[in-house]
Amino acid sequence: xxxxxxxxxxxxxxxxxxxxxxxxxxxxxxxxxxxxxxxxxxxxxxxxxxxxxxxxxxxxxxxxxxxxxxxxxxxxxxxxxxxxxxxxxxxxxxxxxxxxxxxxxxxxxxxxxxxxxxxxxxxxxxxxxxxxxxxxxxxxxxxxxxxxxxxxxxxxxxxxxxxxxxxxxxxxxxxxxxxxxxxxxxxxxxxxxxxxxxxxxxxxxxxxxxxxxxxxxxxxxxxxxxxxxxxxxxxxxxxxxxxxxxxxxxxxxxxxxxxxxxxxxxxxxxxxxxxxxxxxxxxxxxxxxxxxxxxxxxxxxxxxxxxxxxxxxxxxxxxxxxxxxxxxxxxxxxxxxxxxxx
Length: 342
Known about the structure:
By secondary structure, the protein is an alpha+beta fold. It has seven helices and eleven strands. A hairpin with a 5-residue loop joins strand 5 (121-131) and strand 6 (137-148). The longest helix has 16 residues, at 64-79.
């Protein structure tokens, strides 16, 4: 009996299958320090315990995307070790802040399957939940992945494509217990712009850019214990080690601080697409569009829906070509909800 894990192939999945992923992880302030070393992350709520306490939280949480990466990384050996591509996200919600000392584990349910016409690959839809040591769900999201078949003669499963929300409603969002922006310090946060200063349809060029290097990407991917072969093994992808999509997400989110410094907490992920591959040497830039706004009913706290687009040095606000396809310069198209002081 083989002792090594070859990963799951498309024919290994079935609807309703639940996967309990290995290696729970206790997060510490070390994750924050490394996260802030890898990305130009400067949102005040995730940088200062005192700022977080002034906003009603007991201390500064781990960055929302850092918590996402920890939960995501656990799933890779079972979901995307043999993936061709991670295709998209939906119905993502941050349900509880993650604090230093919390222990996270992940579990996933298979909710959709569709074999591709080439008979060599198929798409798997999964819903993943990240739980803490109290068995509270801190993060949940759906993603779909194109996965190779190992046995090309394996029969195609019945096609099941889940019916997913195009976007979360404001009522789906969870505001952390105690969060209160009524005494928010805009000077310490870095910008004066509040919820009411942003208009639906407004676009923001985030100005700055960062050139991705092999070393930082591989450090980040190891930090999240992401074992996908395409991120490390040049014999698996001779055109270059593919930059982990989450690395692009975090870089773009960090760059968005310039213009959205007060979009403090990500609480919803409506959708996302890794439009084109990213490789070392690409320079990531970012722009945002305000898609929607909503009140939350919590003192001083508003919700803002944003489209975050990462490009490899392309022109801002250019998303698709005349054919309706993503511009070749677009790396990421992410639709999310964040909390911002009113």
